[in-house]
Amino acid sequence: MDQRKDNFDVLVVDDDAVTRAQLRFLLLRNGYDVTIASSGEEGWDMLQQRHFPIVITDWSMPGMNGPDLCRLVRENLDDEYLYMILLTGMTEKQQVAKGLEAGADDYITKPFDSGELLARLRVGRRILSLQRSMRETQLELHEMAHQDGLTKVMNRRAIDGHLSDAIARLARATHPSTVALLDIDFFKRVNDTYGHQAGDAVLQEVAARIRDILRKTDKIGRYGGEEFIAILESADVDDAAEVAERIRMAVQELPIEHGGHEISVTISIGLCEAPAGYSGSSALVVERADAALYEAKRGGRNQVVLGSLEPESHADEPLLKAAGAERLTADLAR
């Protein structure tokens, strides 16, 4: 008995009841999960509803035949690879070539030999395992290229790309979006007092708290050092201010434990709303959010400040300083 199943499900598509019964008995006896379809149309319906790593299909069937099924699969189902084996009574090379061109990976002639079929299934499993391993490696490489290794949020390059796309979409949008710059207050003191490993732990925990409060559709990235950037699409500055204040309170209220120490940190946040129809640069939005962050730092830290794309108001008249944050906190508490 073949013990190397590795959770492979097999879909058998054949209009002949005797062949279906033979295949079902052989595959079950060798540890496979088997699903049966009695026509090409039924097999196609099943394939659209769930994934089968391996499909064994008869070539000659009324209506949709085996090559037609292979062709539909290759043209429409590309999320995860299916290994397809054609059962055929044809031995002419030209006919076999047509089946392979339609999308089959392998073929076996009828009446099939059990040992040969099982051997070909093992080949299919090896190919699928290799393909899965390659896909996992690609995902890991993608994460390495787009994710900050320490905090597991997006890195600067990745978040800059999302920011450019989000700002570009505003030209056709009906709702504004808001950019937030978030900076851990007196972070150097954490490194100097508790060491760089503690500083890393603080960065990781603050990133996690920010991520937990943001919506799933929001984007967050590490912008450099102890600074993060968040993109809140379809959120005006008032909605973003409520989110930012929740983040500020989440960071402030619970110390971060590391190496037997409880490390208390706070965070300053600058916001800038980009209105619907905005056609300016993403750099300008970030610049104004950064100016608001500077006001938060200059005003005592641990607060949220709203910036503006209007040059006369983004620095001299911040819309939300510490007193405003206190009012917003009270509003949220009610």
Question: What is this structure's SSE topology?
Answer:
Layout: E1 9-13, H1 17-29, E2 33-37, H2 40-49, E3 54-58, H3 66-76, E4 83-88, H4 93-101, E5 106-109, H5 114-146, H6 156-169, E6 177-184, H7 187-194, H8 196-213, E7 219-224, E8 227-232, H9 237-253, E9 256-258, E10 261-263, E11 267-274, H10 282-298, E12 304-306, H11 322-333
Parallel strand pairs: 1-2, 1-3, 3-4, 4-5, 11-12
Antiparallel strand pairs: 6-8, 6-11, 7-8, 9-10
Helix pairs in contact: 2-3, 7-8, 8-9
Can you tell me about this structure?
The protein has 334 residues and is of the alpha/beta class. It has 2 domains: 9-141, Response regulator (Rossmann fold, 3-Layer(aba) Sandwich); 156-333, Alpha-Beta Plaits (2-Layer Sandwich), CATH 3.30.70. The chain is 49% helix and 19% strand. It starts with 8 loop residues before the first strand and ends with a helix.
The SSE string, one letter per element, is: EHEHEHEHEHHEHHEEHEEEHEH
- Supply the number of structural domains: 2
Q: What is the CATH architecture term of the largest domain?
A: 2-Layer Sandwich
Spatial ordering of strands, largest sheet: 2-1-3-4-5
Measured between the Cα atoms of the first and last residue, the distance is: 67 Å
Percent of residues in beta strands: 15-25%
Number of strands: 12
Task: Kindly provide the radius of gyration, computed on alpha-carbon positions and rounded to a whole number of angstroms.
Answer: 30 Å
Percent helix, as a range, is: 40-55%
The CATH top-level class label of the largest domain? Alpha Beta
CATH homology superfamily name of the largest domain: Reverse transcriptase/Diguanylate cyclase domain
Whole-number mean pLDDT: 88
Low-confidence stretches: 1-5, 312-334
Give a quick account of the main beta sheet: strands, pairing sense, barrel closure: 5 strands, parallel
Report the total helices: 11
Task: Estimate the global geometry from the Cα principal axes.
Answer: elongated
Provide the CATH topology of the largest domain. Alpha-Beta Plaits
Coarse structural class: alpha/beta
